[in-house]
Amino acid sequence: SKGCKLVGCGSAVPSIQISNDDLSKIIDTSDEWISVRTGIRNRRILSRKDSLTALATEAAQKALQMAEVDPDDVDLVLLCTSTPEDLFGSAPQIPKALGCKNNPLAYDITAACSGFLLGLVSAACYIRGGGFNNVLVIGADALSRYVDWNDRGSCILFGDAAGAVLVQSCDSEEDGLFSFDMHSDGGGQRHLNASMKENKIDHELGSNGSFLGLLPKGSSYSCIQMNGKEVFRFAVRVVPHSIELALEKAGLAASNIDWLLLHQANQRIIDAVATRLEVPPERVISNLANYGNTSAASIPLALDEAVRSGKVQAGHTIATAGFGAGLTWGSAIVRW
Ligand code: ACO
After folding, report:
1. Would you place residue 201 in the very low, low, confident or very high pLDDT band (cuts 50, 70, 90)?
2. Which atom of ligand 1 is nearest to the CA of 23?
3. How confident is the model at residue 266 (pLDDT cuts 50, 70, 90)?
4. Which of 36, 43, 88, 234 sits CB 3.0–4.6 Å from 292 for a disulfide?
5. pTM of the predicted protein model
6. Is the CB of 231 under 6 A from ligand 1?
């Protein structure tokens, strides 16, 4: 059977930077409170004029350049996002913008902060199933568009970004995606969501018998609702276990990995997971101080920085994990 390997990565962030001090001008908070509780100092946000799809395209372009793969050779584009610019899916806009003349399959994957991980697994399934050779997995989110900027417990956490990885088919001996572990728990949805607004229905049926009164007025989602303490507890409980399961499937121990690369939600979550797995701080990748929690983009963004700075090198083994709304979570053991 076929193997899969990661052959390129890229990322892109908006130019507007918002510091903790900037936030303290609109809500009752401080740089000290935010950095001590979360490790976050800055985040980037997309302006109204900017396009998340364009940011995702830029990240994908850089991944193709690194891999030296022609856009026409891409046969699948998975856009992992919970904030598409088209409710029907933004993914097909990316091969269009990349100039792929082969009309590759492209669709969105919605799984918040676990999205990139699910994209990676999906890419592996397509490649191993046969017929697919170059799969672009893009994580891109603009949660700033769904944040309640009056809620100081959540608005301090999030930032916008895009990151991409090109997954390519290879001989099975070269396989670089060793194992996965994936889960969901819909019972925890109440702790983190951006659900459809509960529109008040004025009347059961219109006086003329029309059904239109039964339908929601407009179509809007509420802002992000989060119980920070519950989300924190959830992450620290499930992530170490999930990584242990994935390591076991790969026949590896935590001491065998070169890097621990978690979804960048909160430095305290990262530290707690690393401590539990006994991974020393010098083997933990973290860049959330600069970008905050960028949802589906956080893992490929941090990977891209670590690869381009020379930290992550060819042949290194990485344990990665995503976790977030749904609730969903999952881990993968991969080789760069
Ligand atoms: N500035 C100052 N004070 C604040 C702020 C703020 N930004 N936010 C909350 N507070 C106050 C609260 O009002 C509360 O005050 P009180 O004691 O007078 O009532 C006090 O600080 C403590 O609030 P808690 O919510 O209990 O603070 P906690 O220590 O739990 O920290 C935090 C909150 C940082 C959100 C933490 O719970 C956390 O990081 N949780 C994980 C959240 C997360 O990572 N979510 C996303 C992951 S999934 C995904 O990526 C989509």
Report:
1. low
2. 7
3. very high
4. 43
5. 0.95
6. yes
Q: 228: Cβ below 6 Å to ligand 1?
A: yes
User: What interface predicted TM-score (ipTM) does this complex get?
Assistant: 0.93
The residue-averaged pLDDT of 110-135 equals 96
pLDDT digits (tens, 9 = 90+) for 52-77: 999 999 999 999 999 999 999 999 99
Whether 125 is catalytic: no
Q: How far is CA 145 from CA 72, 88, 164, in A?
A: 33, 18, 21
Q: What is the average per-residue pLDDT within 184-209?
A: 78
**Given 113, 155, 191, 266, which residue is catalytic?**
113
For ligand 1, whether the C-beta of 265 sits within 6 Å is yes
**Cα(135)–Cα(128) distance, rounded to whole angstroms?**
12
Q: Is the CB of 159 under 6 A from ligand 1?
A: no
Give residue 206's pLDDT. 58
